[in-house]
Known about the structure:
The protein is of the alpha+beta class. The protein contains five helices and seven strands. It folds into two domains: 27-127 and 163-191, Alpha-D-Glucose-1,6-Bisphosphate, Chain A, domain 4, CATH 3.30.530; 131-161, no CATH class.
Amino acid sequence: xxxxxxxxxxMAGCILFSGCGSExxxxxxxxxxxxxxxxxxxxxxxxxxxxxxxxxxxxxxxQARYIRTRPLSGAQFFEIWRQDxxxxxxxxxxxxxxxxxxxxxxxxxxxxxxxxxxxAQVLRLSIPERPIEGASRMxxxxxxSSSRYQTLEVDQHKQAQIEWIDAGTDHDLEQKILKLxxxxxxxxxxx
Length: 191
């Protein structure tokens, strides 16, 4: 019996540490350069891709060659039509936390080539807790709720402490957007 337990612990340890031994993926922040593509054409393709992914365009500046989206709340597991979760990790984070994403695209023309730099910023909502005085008062941890009446109203003192914290960038989403833009341009050139 002890041998079986020992073998199970050793196998579990091997499985846990096997993920750490794999080669780490290096994510490149290199821009994607599209040959024989005008900047206006690339910007129109990028706008179409972002709108299809349900991002709202906040700034579309052809002179500065820049596109910025409004914050888009992270897709939940039941929103199968949403495309802003580019990996299992980002989907898990969006289901555990209140997230929103902002995408910025910079376009750099170089002769007949246009290079596109993408940045997908992730913001996480931070709400200060109140001390919990027991399991029956859990409903009031963030708001003025009671066990009988649930509300989403936060008192003014706590309202001032609510903020969106920068949670870094979503490299998988950046790569997905750039691939979709590239595919959109290639599809348009084929027609």
